[in-house]
Amino acid sequence: MELDSLKYVWRTLEAAPASESGPDEIHALLQRRSGGIVTRMRRNLTGELILIAATYTPAILFYFLDFEGRLSGIAWLFILLLTMLAVYFYRKNQLLKAMQCTGCSLYSNLRQQITTLKIYIKFYVWSGTIMIPVMFILSWLIIRWKFPAAPGADLFYQLSGTPWWQHPLIWAVFLIPVTVGIYFVNLWYVHRLYGRHIRKLQDLLQEMEEE
Amino acid sequence: MKLVQEHRFLLYKVCRLYCFTEADRQDLFQEIVIQLWKSYPGFRGDSKFSTWLYRIALNTAISDLRKQGRRPSTTSTSEIPPSLPDMTWPGEEEQQLQQLYAAIARLSDVEKALVMLYLEDKPYEEMEEIMGINQNNLRVKMNRIREKLRKMTKEAAYGIR
Questions:
Q1: Which run of H or E residues covers position A79?
Q2: Are residues B112 and B54 both part of a single domain?
Q3: Same domain, yes or no: B80 and B152
Q4: Which of B24, B40, B71 is the last residue of a domain?
Q5: Which of A96, A185, B119, B160 is a plausible cystine mate for A10, CB 3.0–4.6 Å?
Q6: How far is C-alpha A152 from the chain's CA centre?
Q7: Distance between CA atoms of B16 and B84, rounded to whole angstroms?
Q8: Residue A83 in contact with partner chain B when CB distance is under 8 A
Q9: Is residue B98 very low, low, confident or very high in pLDDT (cuts 50, 70, 90)?
Q10: Comparing C-alpha atoms, which of B5, B3, B62, B55 is closest to residue B28?
């Protein structure tokens, strides 16, 4: 097969489908949802954001309005968490926005996707890992601050009864293995989600770089 | 919309090269149209419109993961059909084109893009702009692809796998 001899055939025979796309059909295509990987990731992120807002907002309002405002501190802690999550979502969204440059050359686009996806994965893993001890400590603070110690109750109450200087040690013994475990679970999960895609992109880039 | 209409055949060709079923082709065509629509405000005319269009179409086709499960692997040639069943072009030239598509199906995604640009008679300067690979490297790659296609045709003719 000689490619040069096929140029004419290629250019004259149009590979048109049975039904051609008219302006109306193209317009209809634009109304549909995009199935691209980055668009889907951004859609999922928006979904997560809506879910978080829908969960936190009633809880915040509840603690502000109920108990005659005596537990408003809990509402403020929820607001603090929500602010941290907002930063998390903003950063993820920025990374997703920067992930694709379809108007760039194939090589630049691949490089950009790989670099941004790696940063995204790192951010995903670390923020997911750090969030766990932060949530534990904040929950403990809420309980210690608002509820009196009850001997023989769960870990939070037991901690309230011990001298303050033992707390960091107890937290370290409990949280370090949990955090390390969560880190590896996150790592496994994120590679399950994006591992194949990133490998495919890396293979393509390597192929383009080969002389 | 007018520009998409004008260049739709080019988009169909990209879809034919990268997808093996009609449903996948339609999905890819839709995705390319959406990407063109989204990216058009950023087109500043630094390059030719066709260069920009090829970039969008090929970037969308290559870096989209959705069809992975349904795409035959480029390394496993045993899964590739000898010709694409729903292409009904009669005549000798058409048969040649069918063979070409069947052979291209066994190339990698990057090689497919290069073959397409070559068949479209794009000069190496423009190919460099689209692919982001320097011209010397492009020439080397094109020679390898030509050799690969020749070998594939021989294999098909003599029934060698």
A1: helix A72-99
A2: no
A3: yes
A4: B71
A5: B119
A6: 38
A7: 9
A8: no
A9: confident
A10: B62
Assess contact for A112 and A98: CB atoms under 8 A.
yes
Please tell me whether residues B9 and B55 are part of one structural domain: yes
Q: What is the mean pLDDT of residues A144-166?
A: 61
Q: What is the pLDDT of residue A160?
A: 60
| Residue B16 pLDDT exceeds 90 | no
Interface test with chain A among B63, B74, B155, by most A beta carbons within 10 Å: B63
Q: Which residue of B has its CA nearest to A22?
A: B5
Of B31, B52, B71, the position where a domain reaches its end is B71
Q: Report the CATH number at residue B61.
A: 1.10.1740.10
Domain containing B160 equals: 75-161
Same domain, B7 and B46: yes
Partner-chain contact A106 B118, CB within 8 Å: no
Q: How far apart are CA B141 and CA B118, in angstroms?
A: 11
- The pLDDT > 90 percentage for chain A reads 39
Task: Identify whether residues B16 and B79 lie together within a single domain.
Answer: no
Interchain contact, A9 vs B133, CB within 8 Å: no
Same domain (yes/no): B13, B62:
yes
Domain count, chain B: 2
Which of A4, A33, A105 to mutate against chain B (most B CBs within 10 Å)?
A: A105
Contact B12 A108 (CB under 8 A): no
B58 and B19 Cβ atoms separated by less than 8 Å: no
